[in-house]
Amino acid sequence: MSQTGPLTDDGLVQLLTPTGERTPHPELDARVAHLDADALRAMYRDMVLVRRFDTEATSLQRQGELALFAQSLGQEAAQIGSAHAMTARDHVFPSYREHGVAHARGVDMADVLRLFRGVDHGGWDPVAHGFHLYTLVIGSHTLHATGYAMGLQRDGLVGTGDAERDSAVVVYFGDGATAQGDVNEALVFAAVNNAPVVFFCQNNQWAISEPTTKQARVPLADRGPGFGVPSVRVDGNDVLATYAVTQWALERARSGGGPTFVEAFTYRMGAHTTSDDPTRYRSSAEEEYWRRRDPIDRLRLHLEQVGELPAEFVAQVADDADRLGERIRTEVRAMGRPSPASMFDHVYATPHSVVDAERAWFERYEASFDAGSTSEGSHR
Amino acid sequence: MSTSTQTRPTDPAGGGTSGTQRLTFAKAINLGLRRALESDPKVLLMGEDIGRLGGVFRVTDGLQKDFGEDRVVDTPLAESGIVGTAIGLALRGYRPVCEIQFDGFIFPAYDQITTQLSKMHYRSKGRLTLPVVIRVPYGGGIGAVEHHSESPEVLFAHTAGLRVVSPSSPVEAYRMIQQAVASPDPVLFFEPKGRYWEKGDVDLDAAPDGPLLDKARIVRPGTDVTLVAHGPTVQTALKAAETAAAEGTSIEVVDLRALSPLDTATVAESVRRTGRCVVVHEAPVLYGTGAEVAARITEECFYHLQSPVLRVGGFHAPYPVAKIEHDYLPGLDRVLDAVERALAF
C-alpha cells in the first residue's frame, strides 16, 4: 500500500463513483437535485478548460516563457465543484494552485499567469472578482479569510435570512498547510468568533515530496472537531460531492452557523511545481490508482450513462479548450516587461520620502545612460 | 453584532476628553485611541487582555466598556492570528489597531507583518490598502523578565511597505496614535513602555503641526553636538543636554519620531550647524538605527563634520537580566561620554 495512507473510498462523501454511477446520499441529494444536465455540462466544460490551461502553462514554462508553474491537474473537481457552489457575494482566499476557482470566479486565465511570468505580483483585481490574490506563504491567508469573515459579520451580512445579502468566505489550502501554526490559529479565531468561513483543504496527498503522513497522524478532517469546527471528508475527485458539501458549508456559514472544515480527498496528478520531479518520491502504481479516479473522466462517464453528453458538445468544449490554449500562449508571450521604475509604485499608499528619493535617484541614473554621462549623487 | 455608540463617552478617570490635561503617556495613548474610535466607526482595537482588563499596561482602560466588545476585541492568545485576522478585517474596510502585549512577543506575528501586511498594497498595485496599526510596548528599564524589554523596531524599518514610528512624550503619543490610525498604510507603533507613567501636558483639542509620522523634530536647540534619539531615549538625550549645558556644552536634541521613513533632512540640517552627531538608542548598535543615521549623515554632511558620527546603544548580547539591565541600556553617563569623545576630535 502506498505511503499516502489507505487508498480507499471509505469515509468519503461521494455522489458519483469512479465509474460515474450516481450513488444516493440521504442528506445531500436535495442539494444537487436542481443541477440539470446543463449545469453538469457547465462543470464538465470548466474542468476541461482548466486542464487545458494547465497543459498550456506547463508547456510555456518548458519553453522558458514562465519562470515557474504550479499545476492544478487532478484537482479540477475539488475546485470547480466548490466554486460552483458560491455566489458572487462570497469571497475567496486561494493559495497558489486554485486556477479552477479563479476561472470560475471570472478571472482571465491569462492573467493568472502574470505572477508566474514575472511581470506582476498579482495579476487581477481581487475586489472585482471576490477572489483574493494568490498567497505563497503556506497558510497565511487562512487568517486573512477569517478576518474578512469577521468583517462580514460586523457588516451585518451574515444570518440576516436574506439570501441576497448573506455572504461567506471560502479559503483554499493544502494538506501541508494544516501543519502550519497560522491554519490552526485561523481555526481558533474562526471558531470562537463563529466566523462565516469555509476551510477548504485540498488534501492532494503530497506537500512537495512529503506525504500527508508526514503532516498528520490522523485524517485531516479529524482536526476540525478539536477546534469546535464541524468537518466533512469529501471525495475531492467527485465534482457533484464537492459541490454539495461546499454548498452545505456555505449555507451554514451565511446563515450564522459558523465555520466548517472540508477535507477534499484528491490527488495532485502533476508535480508540485514545474521545478520538482515526482518520480523521485512516488510510485507509478499510486499514480495509476489515481488516474483511474480522474475527476473529468468520472463526470464524463456519468453524463454518458445518463445520455446527456452529445458528441457535438464534447467537440465544442475541446475546440474551446484549444482556443483557450492558443489565446493564453499568445497573450503570455505578449506580456511586456514592466518599466523598471515601476518597482517603486505602490510601496506605500501615501508618499514615503525614502522611496521617493530612491526613485528619483534611479530615474536620474537611468537617464544618465541616455545622456551619455554618469550619474551623480547618492540613492537615498 | 451591536453597533457602537456615536456619543462621546466621558472619561471615567475624570476630566473629560477636551482641554489641556496633565496626562501620563499611557493615558495620552488611551485618549488618542478613544478619539480614533469616536471619529471612525470602522476603527477597532484587538489584542490580548485589552478589554475588561484594559491591557496589561491599562492603555486601553475603559474603552471596551464604552465602545463594546465588537470594537475593543479580546482575542485568542495568538499574535500571528491577531495580525492575520486584522489583515482580513482591513481588506473588508476596517481599521484594526492591534496590541502586541510585549516587544518579544511580536515574533510569532513577524511573518504576517513582513510577508503579508507590508506587501499587500504593493502586490495588488494599489488596489488593496491595509490601514492596520500594530501597537508594541517596547524597550527596557522596567525590571522585567526575558522577552519583555526588547527593541525590535529596526527589523520592521528594514521592511518596505511598513511605517515605523515611536512617540517620545505624552503629547506626541496622543497625536501620533491618531495619525497612525488614520494612515492608509500599515504602521508599527512602538510605545516606550518605560515612559508609560511619565506625565506631560496635552492639549487634547489642538491640531498637530502637520503630519507627525514622517518628520523628525528638534526637541531642544543647541550648537555644539546633535544628539539623535527616538522613543525612550529622547528623554535620556534631553537629560544629557541639560547636564551638559551646566558644563557649558550646547547639545541639540533631535527626536526622529519615525524610523521609516527616516527624515535624514532634519538631522542633516542640524549636523551642518553643530558639526557633530551622536546617535542613541536602546537596541543593539550592530546594524541599528545609529548605523543608518551615521551612514546617511556621513554621505550628506561629510565636509561639515568635525568628528565621526558616534553611536550609543545596546550591546550584541541578548537583553540581560533585570539586575544588570541599566548597565546594558544607554544611560546618561554613556551618552555624555560619547558627547565628550565627539567634542575631543
UniProtKB/TrEMBL annotation, chain B:
Keywords: Oxidoreductase, Thiamine pyrophosphate
Domain Transketolase-like pyrimidine-binding: 23-198
The species this protein was found in: Cellulomonas fimi (strain ATCC 484 / DSM 20113 / JCM 1341 / CCUG 24087 / LMG 16345 / NBRC 15513 / NCIMB 8980 / NCTC 7547 / NRS-133)
InterPro entries registered for this protein in UniProt: THDP-binding, Transketo_C/PFOR_II, Transketolase-like_Pyr-bd, Transketolase_C
Disordered: annotated segments: 1-20
UniProt xrefs under Pfam families: Transket_pyr (PF02779), Transketolase_C (PF02780)
Known cofactor(s): thiamine diphosphate
UniProt-recorded name of the protein: Transketolase central region
This protein's record includes keyword Membrane: no
One of the record's GO molecular function terms: magnesium ion binding
Alphabetical list of CDD domains matching this protein: TPP_PYR_E1-PDHc-beta_like (cd07036)
